[in-house]
Amino acid sequence: MILYRIIVEWILCVEIPFRTKIGKSLRLYHGQSLVVNNETIIGSNCTLRQSTTIGTNKKLSNGKWNKSPIIGDNVDVGANCIIIGPIVIGDNVIIGAGSVVVKSVESNTKVAGNPAKII
Length: 119
Fold this sequence. Notes:
By secondary structure, this protein is mainly beta. It is 8% helix and 30% strand. The strands form four sheets. A five-stranded parallel β-sheet has the order 1-4-7-10-13.
């Protein structure tokens, strides 16, 4: 675990905890400043780009954080995106660069903007 943290987090500047559930063939393009919460679930054949944050957005009254996103298969996430909260991103979704996704996204759609909307 220490070797993983040194190489992946400190040298590559990518924070994906080793317990994160990730499907096959995850692609990281320019992974610098990429942060993924350990509760996030990422499907197969997904692409993540630099400066993207995927995680929780709210501390609950019991002191725990709300759930992290569930990302489907074949999702393409642009650079500088924020995907937060207990949301579901469907299969075959494209998320434009700089988008802030705070609501679930249906399969086979393209979203962009702040907040992200279907385009």
